[in-house]
Amino acid sequence: MEERKKVIFSGIKPSGELTLGNYLGAIKNWVKLQDEYDCYFCVADLHAITVRQEPKDLRRRTLEILSIYIAAGIEPKKNTMFIQSHVPAHCEASWLLTCSTYMGELSRMTQYKDKSKNMGDSISAGLFNYPVLMAADILLYNTDLVPVGKDQKQHLELARDIGERFNNLYSPTFTIPDGYISTSAAKIMDLQDPSKKMSKSEENPNGYILIMDPPEVIRKKVSRAVTDSIGEVNYTDDQPGVKNLINILSAIKSLSPEEIVEFYKGKGYADFKRDVAEAIVSELEPVQKKVTELLTNKDYLESIYKAGAEKANYVSMKTLRKMQKKIGLIQR
Ligand code: AMP
Ligand code: TRP
């Protein structure tokens, strides 16, 4: 009998334009894993709406992210790509899991604390429950491995706790997933303030590179990236700006930071930055061309997300039914 392939699940929420951080920290890893695993990649639109989204932007970005997945090299024939809201079991499982998740655990989530800090009284209950929906996403597919950036590690640990708790309360139901966090691109930092992660929600656009930024914009942003006055390419926390650029180059070129440091010995930042910029441009340019092309072919995109939802529905409903039965809900 053929051995069951291990399952991978991951997603990105369409709450802003995707950055180089999303690309290197998430998507590029997925492309490498697709041959070995049975992969599910969703566009997490239900996570995006935990903060207010302009409906037309949400629609545009949802399809753009799906196009980026495909353009980056995720094969539609081999993988299940779908839009989270097309698979109702996610919301249902999320409710069932919410009932055995504690307020205390959710209020300790650093992403929640950061995001809700300046919201006053208008923090949505969805933002608070965000990690439970993410646990449902993951647990429904008997996922073995979850490739994400470092910022999602805490959410993943909570998903494991929630899954283990359910298994103990009722009986073994879920596979408890492991995280898969690539080292060099685990956290791509802001180009203007390398103490913060590169994020689309930053105010200063020079701090982030968007996957869809034109080449000349990418070159300008890299040339303006904050470094230091040391003038040597070293991989150390004392030079966070340079370290971040090394991480970017390392992730794109599959070179170790040590190899990069060795190569730039005796050279200044100008050469180094130019190479970083060119590496990014040559990585992203083909992806951008493909995305633009895909976005003009809505029927093709639709065929992919429909097929994805069909498969995802089938698998997730099986798990949801098990959950309902164990909890004591009457089967319809
Ligand atoms: P999000 O955009 O928050 O939905 O994140 C989607 C995926 O991209 C998650 O796996 C994140 O961990 C990853 N990610 C986002 N920003 C970065 C970053 N600056 N560096 C590395 N990974 C990131
Ligand atoms: N919350 C994740 C993020 O912001 C996106 C996400 C939603 C996700 N569901 C997931 C990631 C399931 C991994 C697995 O990055």
From TrEMBL:
Motif ('KMSKS' region): 197-201
Entry's EC annotation: 6.1.1.2
Keyword Aminoacyl-tRNA synthetase in annotation: yes
One Pfam family linked to the record: tRNA-synt_1b
Annotated keywords: Aminoacyl-tRNA synthetase, ATP-binding, Cytoplasm, Ligase, Nucleotide-binding, Protein biosynthesis
Family: Belongs to the class-I aminoacyl-tRNA synthetase family.
Name of this protein: Tryptophan--tRNA ligase
Gene responsible for this protein: trpS
